[in-house]
Amino acid sequence: MDTNKRGEQLTEYLLQTNLTILNRGTEPTFVTSRCQTTIDITLATHKAADLVGGWHVSNEPSFADHRRICFQIHIKPPDPIPYRNPRKTDTKIYEHILTKKLSDFEPADVTLSVDNIESNVQSLTAALTSSYEKACPTVTAKNSDKKCIGITKAAQAVAARDVRDINIKIVSDSASVLQALQNNTITSVLILECHNALQSIAGKNKVTLQWIKGHSNSLGNDAADELAKRGSATKVYGPEPLLPIPSAQIKTWLRAKTEEIHLLEWISSESCRQTKNAVPVASKKFARSLTRLTRDKLRRNNKHPKTLPWGIDPVTCIFFDLALVISPVSKFVCSMSTS
To answer: Residues in domain RNase H type-1 (predicted)?
Structure first.
């Protein structure tokens, strides 16, 4: 083996600093038209070296004499820390629990000693704290769920187009999702669905998952960040994954609830007895028919006698003339009024 002074100095430096060389193989890292050699080395501590894998010299053009060195660092992302959001505290539950605790609270005689005062303060503080903890349970941030679903939807969209022999690159700023997809063990249903969706398109195309730094002026990534902010600020309902409900669905629910309350009010109300004889049940179709009537048509049909037999009211006759209700009695009475 050929040695020189610089090599001896490097070996001495590695022994003094307790570093190790991560280079693998004999692939040259410095290539010119006249020579090829390995002059680029990657150093790491022994603890960090255990986390590094896949060290290799890339074959992609670097547009320089030095070739690109690639490797992977296998780092487990930190577990999310549970937290409480005071703004999402259910005040009704808090007041109910606190009222019950204070009603059962029997304070000690505060005039006897300082210990009694301290005991009362601790009891009151415990009641306030426990009421708050029950009204505001801990939650865990799960932004990665949204990123995982985004990758799944992208893969499903590609599969729906049935493309073949295409280089597909999907970028994401969620390192935890990309690492979960790379692991041999899958413990999440969302990750499994995403993995299956990617496998369905990987058999016909070359698929690459690439991590991208958040807020890096990437048009698609910045748009996704903006939508994620809206989703985080939107109150969601239902089981996981927690995704914002479309505004159209919320309007549909509100419209249905409004119609339900309106129908209940109409049935239980004791007023408008004459109108109820003609319109026993509120109907959107009937309401649209009324709103589409012109003034001339209403004026022509509003000419009925003030006194009608058999308790028939003018409203029923008007509705019959307008072809909005069907009643044989109304037909007879209304024919009398026009004769």
So the answer is: 106-233
